[in-house]
Amino acid sequence: NLENPVHDIQSIKEILIKDYFFQPEGIITLKNANFEDIINAFNKLKSIVNENTNLLIYYAGHGYLNEDTKEGFWIPVDAEGREDSTFVRNSTIKVKLGVIADKARHVLLVSDSCFSGALLREGNRGMSLDQKNERYFQKVAKKKSVQILAAGGLEFVDDNYKGTRHSPFTYYFLQSLKDNNARYFEATDLSQETSRNVSVNTVQPPES
């Protein structure tokens, strides 16, 4: 059993409400979710997002990689051993995410789990901060986007970093949110900042 994903999610929820204008009534929290809970949550999001929605999905929990097929999974609490028919497939997550992204304006999926890099195909680092101005932010805010930030590549990740009750990825994700003083904080910049700190301080390089 993992000790800290619920604490990870609660801490992220608190800072998003306190510092980033997220509304409590607009946040859906699943604790110790089973297979049906996860699928139903994606389906619910599909039904409530619209062309003005900016959506963040944050998963903290177990992940699994089938070494033979290289297929990745999220592991719900009702999973049965290594029977991957009881796991949530990355392919399912991508399809659900794609349907949501077609209806929403901006979608960011963050996956803090072992083998989360299996969700990704290629990275896009975006522009440097010195190339961005007010006009740039106004322009990109109107364009549709879907991005994925993964805690690690195809390896195991830590659950309790230096006794903080956070994974190393969530710890530095939170630090990036806390340290930000800019008027705008793009998902790309959040990804770069978190990835840099995790890579420098741990052996767990995130991917995006």
Task: Please provide a written account of the structure.
The chain contains 6 helices and 6 strands. The protein has helices at residues 5-19, 35-48, 90-103, 134-142, 168-179, 187-201; strands at residues 54-60, 63-65, 72-74, 88-89, 106-112, 145-150. The strands form 2 sheets. It has a 3-stranded parallel β-sheet, sandwiched between helices. The longest helix is centred in the N-terminal third of the chain and has 15 residues, at 5-19. It starts with a helix and ends in a 7-residue tail after the last helix. Residues 121-131 have low confidence and may be disordered.
Concise overview:
With 208 residues, the protein is of the alpha/beta class.
Question: What key attributes describe this structure?
Answer:
alpha/beta; three-stranded antiparallel sheet; 6 strands
- CA radius of gyration is 17 Å
N-to-C span? 27 Å
Shape field: globular
User: How large is the count of helical segments?
Assistant: 6
Which H/E pattern describes the elements? HHEEEEHEHEHH
Structural class: alpha/beta
Give a quick account of the main beta sheet: strands, pairing sense, barrel closure. 3 strands, parallel
Unreliably modeled segments:
121-131
Strand order of the largest sheet: 1-5-6
Q: Could you tell me the number of beta strands?
A: 6
Query: What amount of the residues lies in strands?
Result: 5-15%
